[in-house]
Amino acid sequence: MSQPDQEREGEPLKLRERAYASFTERLLAREIRPGQFVTQRELVAMTGLPLGAIRELIPRLEAEGLIKTVPQRGMQVAHVDLNLIRNAFQFRLFLETQATALYARNAGDAEIAGQRARHEAIVRRAEAGEEGETLIEDAEEVDRLLHESIIDHLDNEIVSQAFRVTWLKIRLIRQYETRIHNSIVVPVMRDHLKIIAAIETRDGERAAAAMAEHIGNARNRAMTY
Fold first, then answer.
1. Which of 144, 162, 64, 146 is nearest to 100 (CA)?
2. 0.90 surpassed by pTM
């Protein structure tokens, strides 16, 4: 295949990925809200991308459960409700406990030490009295890095993609129900440090149990808000 042909094939793919990224960014920025009805034309206006890219985006969003087609009403963005909370956290429990056990056995010492250092830095800042968006955003990034590192260590693209879709849903739940805020930054980080402590001992069973406890705590917070 010639380079011009490859470029022409690559352009629609780039547009689809840009459309997906734009949709999810606007969802997390609350420009598109859970439960909202949207049309393809409205998505074109929101994203600034062509109608063709939006049409190709719809099946992916439907497959990932981010939108659904409602007869005679159009496309509806997924609700943040008890069903979404139960499903998302149950999926995480099944996936992340096993992934954590494997990570405990196989992750490098330097990587694990980096995880500990990032978490302890957040705890020090919070316990020193720091508050506000910067701390929250940094804590959420440290949170994401731990979970993604554990999942990506499996080196399984299907699992990693499924996890990221679920993580997006978790972020929606946090945003509308239990977004990490100052009062839970330290408890969440300490949950993670228990997981990291078990990983440091290379005890996969104990690490998996600590991850299960952490996911259960997060689910309980979401279910009570």
1. 146
2. no
Domains in the chain, ordered, with CATH?
3-77 (1.10.10.10), 82-224 (1.20.120.530)
- What H or E segment, with its residue span, contains residue 143? helix 133-152
Residue type, 22: S
Cα–Cα distance for residue pair 138/134, rounded to 1 Å: 6
pLDDT tens column, 39-95: 999 989 988 889 989 988 899 999 988 888 888 888 998 887 888 888 999 999 999
Query: Judging by DSSP bridges, how do beta strands 74-77 and 37-38 pair with one another?
Result: antiparallel
In the numeric block, which tokens belong to residue 1? 């295949």
Residues in the chain with pLDDT < 70?
A: 1-13, 174-182, 225
C-alpha–C-alpha distance, residues 126 and 183, integer Å: 9
